[in-house]
Amino acid sequence: MIDDVSTMAKELETTIGRLGHLALVVPHVHHFMSRLRELHTRSKQRNRHRIQIPTICIDDLKLMLLFLKRAKQGIDMNLITYPRPTHVYISDACPAGMGGYGHNGFAWRFYLPQDLLFHASNNLLEHMASIITPWVDILASRLSKGDCALSMTDSTTSEGWLWKSNFREDDDEVQASARIEVA
What is the Cα–Cα distance from 131 to 151, expressed in whole angstroms? Predict the structure, then answer.
């Protein structure tokens, strides 16, 4: 597909299915599947005709090859199983800020500046807090390779974003109208 720069619906469907198996071992693959799924939808409309693969999708496919090479080299079983956590973190957010704490007693808090209040969704702040909390331990050298960290929040949106992020890259006209509506 990369060499031909074109494909058909069935070939794309098979590739997406196989990459879904890769995503079981490398979960972040899910994020890069959105453009390929969109291309597949368009290819089905072409009804047995080849469809050109956009450069950005070619880049995604090349990235998948890198993920496949990494998986072939071997992946630490602790990254694909559910071992007992060695570090547990709790975080939360609200429109005014975010914070978190770890099982070893440290805690952090960040208040948003007044001029930034209500410019980010609470789901985004929850997601950021769930990343920052273990990151504090990484920076303090309390979390190292081989440790198993469990970062929890009271929002499941962040987990959903990890497993399946969807995005559409609309044409310039649609993006321009969205910018006008926001302004």
Answer: 8
Q: Whole-angstrom distance between the N-terminal and C-terminal Cα of the chain?
A: 41
Tokens found for residue 121: 């969704």
Structure tokens at 85: 């956590």
146-170 tens-digit pLDDT: 788 888 888 777 666 655 555 565 5
Q: How far apart are the C-alpha atoms of 88 and 27, rounded to whole Å?
A: 21
The per-residue b/e assignment along 141-180, b for 16 or more CB within 10 angstroms, e otherwise, is eebeeeeebebbbebeebeeeeeeeeeeeeeeeeeeeeee
- How far is residue 64's CA from residue 4's CA, in Å, rounded to a whole number? 17
Tokens 């006008």 locate to 180
Tokens of 106: 């440290």
For a pLDDT cut of 90, what percent of the chain falls above it?
23
pLDDT tens sequence across 11-39: 999 999 988 888 877 777 877 788 888 88
88, 152 contact by CB (below 8 A): yes
